Amino acid sequence: IAKHDANSFIHVFDKNLHDLHQYESKILSRFDQALAQNEFVVYYQPKVDVDSNEIIGAEALVRWINNEGVLVPPTQFIELFEKNGQIQKLDFYVLEQVCKFQQMRIKQGKQLFTISSNFSRVHLFSNDFVQRLNTLVEQYGIPKSCIEIECTETAMAYDSEISIAILGQLQHEGYSVAMDDFGQAYSSLNTLRSMPLNVVKLDRGFLLATLDDEKEKANTIIRNIVSLIHDLNLKIVAEGVENLEQVVFLKSVNCDYIQGYYYSMPLSESAFIDLLSKGIFIR
Ligand code: C2E
Ligand code: MG
Ligand code: MG
Ligand code: MG
């Protein structure tokens, strides 16, 4: 590389870093204000029973509709908030919106279903996590079995002793516990063996194989994971299901629940309520 080129590369690199740093600083400095002004909005993505096509639950997924009206996906801020300590506030804020939603359903006499909320790894290391959850959920009078705590496999594997203890407490309190993104980390089987769980969410990556022989292998793995998870008396949710072919396959291997664009994108609360009033998916 000529000297000139190398220098201009460094220049561009610095500029990008600088922009990134500015972008991050801006996001971080606006967090408290954004929270206070309800810029964080909870979307709901249905989970569908493979046999009945009924909506049996949903996952709460946060979005940031910022003061310029732009919808910012969580992939652009969750990690930053994890590194800088805002994630605890945010995760509890999301759960509080879920509690409000459940409370509304109770008041309307609607049948409750379980809604899952994502909790970052940092909660597993906080002494008062379970206590704080209880306080919130009890304040809204929500049955704990209708709240599911999703933690990623990677988060659980990070310190398995602590995770086993905390997840055990959660189950003891009556919450449902789900392992998110199963199959993405290195120690999947170990983690599966040791963690107190109710539900395993199969990582979207398993459904991404496109070449024929790759797909055949991926499908063999999925088929065996489903049967392994059933033998452990757990339920399995397939994530990222986008087409009918995948649905047909997942039905054929007895997967319990499906979450993905094929049935529905994550929806705003009002769109989700509309969908619920229509009942089951007919497709
Ligand atoms: P996740 O918990 O694994 O959530 C599933 C992600 O897959 C969501 O992305 C969802 O929109 C997306 N998805 C669902 N179905 C499909 C599909 O058929 N195809 C494809 N390509 N994608 C699909 P989203 O909403 O952008 O969230 C990304 C991640 O951000 C989540 O992954 C979760 O790890 C994190 N996250 C979201 N909300 C929260 C939160 O309130 N707290 C924390 N700590 N993390 C959150
Ligand atoms: Mg999740
Ligand atoms: Mg996931
Ligand atoms: Mg994921």
UniProtKB/TrEMBL annotation:
Q: Where is the EAL domain?
A: 24-280
Task: Report the domain of life of the source organism.
Answer: Bacteria
Per the UniProt entry, the signal peptide is none
Query: What is the protein name stated in its UniProt record?
Result: Diguanylate cyclase (GGDEF) domain-containing protein
State the covered range within the intact protein: 457 to 739 of 739
